[in-house]
Amino acid sequence: MRAALAALALAVTMATAGVRADVAPAPAWRVSGGVTTALPRGSVVYVAGAFTQLYSPSASQDQFYEPATGQVLTQCARSTSTRAIAATPDGHGGLLVVVRAGDAFADVNGAWTPPLDTAIIRIAADCLWDRQFAAPGIDPANPSDLTVGLPVRVGNVVLASNAVIVSFFLQAQVAAFDAVTGARVAFQTYPAISEIGLLGGSATRAIARVRDSSAGLYTLGAVTPNTLAVEPGAAVLADESGGTRTWVRGQTLFRLRPAPVNTLEAYDLITLAPKAGWTAPVAPALVDIEVVGARVFLAASTVNGQAVAQPAAVLTATGALDPAWTPAPLTRRTPDPSGTPYVPALTQLATDGQRLYLSGDFERVGGNDRAGVAAIAAATGALDAWDPSPLLVSPLEFSAGGLLMSRPIGTNLVTRRYLAAVDRVTGLATPWDPNDPARTLLHQPTPVSALAADERHVYFASATNGQVLRADLATGDVDQTWRVVLSRTGGTPGTVTTMAVAGGVVYMGGQFDAVSGTTVALTPRRALAAVGVDGTLGAWAPAVASSEPGTLVRSLLPLGATIYLAGDFTSVGAQFRPGFAAVDPTSGALTQPEMFVLGDTRIYGLATDGVQTFVAGVTYGAPLVGSTSIPDTILTQYGPTPGTVPSSAAFVGGRLYAGLEYDIELGTPTARTTVWTTVFADSQGLLHLPDNDGGAEYYPALPGNPPAPPTLAALATGNRVDVSWTRALSGGAPTSYTLSVGSAPGAIDLGSVLMRGTTSFTTTAPTGIYYLTVVARNGDGESAASNEVPLQVGCFAAPPAPGSLTFTTAGRAATLAWGAAATASSYLLEVGQSPGASDLGTFQLPNITTAAGSPPLGVYYLRLRAANACGESPVSNEVRVELDGRVAVPAPPTGVVTAVTGNVVSVAWTPPTSGGTPAGYQVEAGTVPGDVSAVATTAVPSLVVPGAPRGTYYIRVRSFNAAGAGSATADVMVVVP
């Protein structure tokens, strides 16, 4: 029976809190393609982006497709993980794939998992996994660091690079691997070079961007494959930290400079100098290029300010638009009801040298149905017969073995243009559809870049025309009285990268120089603006600036009376703030000191658990993840944090997600192998946006084992405050505590202190009455608040009367108990021979709630007062205690609780406060109510019994002393699974 009692506690703990397992979870559902932002809210998840159709719930399946027929080559390589294959051509008919932890693959030869600590694998020219090629990490002294940039094959070797922090400075590393086996054949560090980013391969060397120091300029250079010597070029790569894109095609490197420049530069890879005769075309929103013969094909809707048919084409020799290029028009099956002309949004290009493969939001090509993917002749632009529909695929890379493509699979295909609401449980789209073509639309539907919401509306920002609108949460109707328009200098549309709603204000951050709207006159606002939900423009306009190009504001986080800013800025209000700042939500003035970070730091994502702010970004090219305390903004860095630089941060289920999953209490990544890229979250779940196709994966909040509430005690001696607490026996083990102080019961408005490694706190406080609580925390969440302790500090007022005075007796001994009086520091016990008298004395007691003694036999009348430095309280109730030497039977205990942990059952109870004083306790257990199959005794009010067998048991407790056993408590049922 003792064994039976023990196993119960574990079942109780699991039923109430759950036990977290650090394993990669399967998503509850997946929405495929074109999602750029998401907003979990209640039972609905709002998603937005460039999509025009949703496949939900679905998965993304990687396959090779036959170029001739468009059909799946089922024997070829494919990913069996949740992410698609991210591959780059190796120049020899195959593809190189960078491995992430937890990746698994398959082909006609069966399932295949790369060997442990593999950084790069290869798909051969026959489209099967090259199972003899497995390249390890770059640094032989650090095999677990699998961080690898773009792998490049040159001749008989594969090169890869990364960077590590050495003595606070970034240092570049390059390794060469045998192209047949993947064995590391050479390794080189570059103490005088901070970054070497491989961009592609020419015939004899790897092309790279090179940065000599952490604050130096980027130049175009090359790495010699056999010696790993670096050849820096003279060409300076401006704006390289602002989000450039590069493509190596033949002997030319094409490079798109970011907004507002938007120029496509070209460099000769033989001379490492700008290409002679090339005039860089201006191509805003360029997403991909391909080169076939004399043409460079661009996925861009405008070139040099001129609207062009897509894909556009410029001449490889000069960069000028090719007037002979007239591709088959890309259209929709039906025109937009608003009358707005359709502008295709292409997402990717690929080529086999004869055909140009393209994907996007089009539905027809040259009048022929194509479901978002097609092939046209690279020479004439005519539609090719190749058609993989209805497989609904997007091209990724062309190899000798076939076209590697990703297709969403699922039967729930719905039409939704750029905005949708998805049921959180099922993943199915709801009827909510602000851009429904069946409506009479008074706005132009466009791709969406950012979302925010309040209790009535979803606010959405256009990725193309600078407008911010709002739609009713219930009906989807777009409010025609509320519109904000953001613009750049010169009148071009601005963009919003982040939005947040707090206190009736919509805060916006992005790339813009002015704001106007339905009720707002054109007003200068650079990168930040605030518009009320009533349509009025706020004065809030923190002055952010940067010495380098980039996205000034990437994330906004309202928390209490503060708005946190993150981005590529280096100053706010002319004060140095590299990438992170806290400002007032009304004035925009800085409210907290500078967070100390290394100089070349940018913060991309912000999150909060309601107490602290988490930051995620990059410092000197390396990932930066950590938390800042409030209000002094001291950074606690989590790390080391190898892997991809996080583009966002989210907090859910007691964990931080920013590139990896972090245990915030330990400040380190968890054992989970999944790599999280762009994430959005609330307390119920996590949305992960894979970077390969913009699909959204929903993960319910994983069950955890947070702590149970601690028990708090506090004492004030004058103005000195001593606080201590004890952890609960149930629940998970705490790793930190947050002590909060309020000015009224239930409030925590005076501040909170986060503490680790201690269960006590001492300070000096001003005179007053305070209300204290403490919360326990661990990596799985936080407990409910402890008992609240009112505390009078200093001489402010006398305490109230103590709680009800009770007693128990045993022969000549008596035990008193009473309820604590708030703000008491001691108690006065008055003893008399008659009611109301104190002729036998007044005895001072410390700040306790029980006392025992053995006076002479007789009858006594007792009452109690609480005292502190300010005086004495009114008197408590009076009790009559008769000591005649006899022993009375004790009353039953109260408050019986049980718990099970492993194979140990724990039982605890509260001693009685009337009758005889217990000498011990008797614990009875049986298999049916009232049954006594086993009895155990204990002198203390608790019992721990190990090794309980499975079954259902009924437990009760009796007090006993020399006079016998008292009545039993009610049965408590326990189940041992």
Report what the structure shows.
The protein is an all-beta fold. Among the domains are: about 60-135 and about 390-410, no CATH class; about 140-235, no CATH class; about 895-975, Immunoglobulin-like (Sandwich). The protein is about 0% helix and about 45% strand. It has one helix and 90 strands. The strands form 25 sheets. Strands 41-42-43-44-47-48 form a six-stranded antiparallel β-sheet, with no helix packed on it. Strands 69, 70, 72, 73 and 74 form a five-stranded antiparallel β-sheet that branches. The longest helix is centred in the N-terminal third of the chain and has 15 residues, at about 1-15. The radius of gyration is 35 Å and the shape is elongated. The two termini are about 15 Å apart.
Shape: elongated
Average predicted local confidence, pLDDT:
87
Largest sheet: 6 strands, antiparallel
The amount of beta strand, in percent, is over 45%
Question: Which strand order do you get reading across the main beta sheet?
Answer: 41-42-43-44-47-48
Amino- and carboxy-terminal Cα gap = 14 Å
What share of residues is helical?
A: under 10%
Number of strands: 90
Number of helices: 1
Class by alpha and beta content: mainly beta
Q: Compute the CA-based radius of gyration.
A: 35 Å
Low-confidence stretches: 1-22
Key terms for this structure?
1 helix; Immunoglobulin-like; 47% strand; 977 residues; five-stranded antiparallel sheet
